[in-house]
């Protein structure tokens, strides 16, 4: 029961942050994807970078248990699914998590998005044997692997480079990119007020 309550509290706090930064706003997602407003992308990169530094730095200091690390298997279906998720995200302005947050904040269109996601999941479950037989779910590159070797973990690594160090380097790189990125790469479309001032 404590785990369930903790999950509710953490999930609610995470949802509130997503809503606060605009991740549940389809117009803001659209402006991010057409590169006219990258502030949300910068926030996402910063969060990933800080999370990586804290996680891998914590592992190096012995503050984070490596046993809690979860690595998903690589297989062709993940690549296909990622493309489908990206296309759906661009079309709807929601990904699964932000759709739930948008529904919780009162957006009715998000309810249709959630219903579509549940129907898609049901269709996948029904047709799972077909996808399994197709080979799209067969592991590639060793399945559950990491880029670098993480001491104490059960996962194989693609390289002998220390995974904790690589995680720190990538985290710092993401933070640097978040600060270096301009607010937009393309002019137009997303900032109506700026367009009005220009005209």
Share of helical residues:
55-70%
- Described by the principal axes of the CA atoms, the overall outline is globular
- First-last Cα distance: 59 Å
- Would you report the number of β strands? 2
Q: Structural class of the helices, strands and pairings?
A: mainly alpha
Main β sheet profile: 2 strands, parallel
Summed over residues and divided by their number, the pLDDT gives a mean of: 86
Keywords: Membrane, Transmembrane, Transmembrane helix
Transmembrane segments: 39-61, 111-131, 165-182
Pfam families: Sulf_transp
Describe it for me?
The chain is mainly alpha-helical and 199 residues long. The chain has helices at 2-21, 26-33, 39-60, 76-92, 96-104, 109-126, 128-134, 163-180, 192-198, and strands spanning 145-146, 156-157. The chain folds into 2 domains: 1-35 and 72-143, no CATH class; 39-65 and 144-181, no CATH class. The protein contains 9 helices and 2 strands, in the order αααααααββαα. It is globular and about 45 Å long. The N and C termini lie far apart (59 Å). 14% of the residues are buried.
């Amino acid at each position: 029961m404590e785990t369930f309550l903790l999950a509710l509290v953490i999930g609610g706090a995470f949802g509130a942050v997503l809503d606060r930064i605009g991740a549940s706003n389809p117009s803001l997602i659209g402006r991010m994807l057409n590169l006219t407003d990258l502030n949300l992308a910068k926030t996402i990169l910063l969060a990933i970078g800080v999370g990586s530094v804290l996680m891998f730095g914590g592992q190096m200091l012995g503050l984070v248990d490596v046993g809690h690390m979860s690595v998903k298997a690589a297989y062709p279906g993940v690549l296909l699914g990622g493309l489908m998720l990206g296309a759906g995200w661009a079309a709807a302005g929601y990904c699964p998590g932000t759709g739930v947050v948008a529904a919780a904040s009162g957006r009715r269109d998000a309810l249709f998005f959630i219903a579509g996601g549940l129907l898609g999941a049901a269709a996948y479950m029904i047709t799972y044997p077909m996808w399994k037989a197709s080979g799209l779910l067969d592991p590639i590159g060793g399945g559950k692997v990491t880029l670098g070797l993480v001491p104490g973990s059960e996962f194989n690594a693609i390289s002998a480079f220390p995974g904790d160090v690589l995680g720190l380097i990538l985290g710092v790189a993401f933070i640097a990119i978040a600060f270096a990125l301009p607010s937009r790469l393309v002019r137009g479309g997303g900032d109506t007020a700026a367009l009005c001032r220009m005209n």
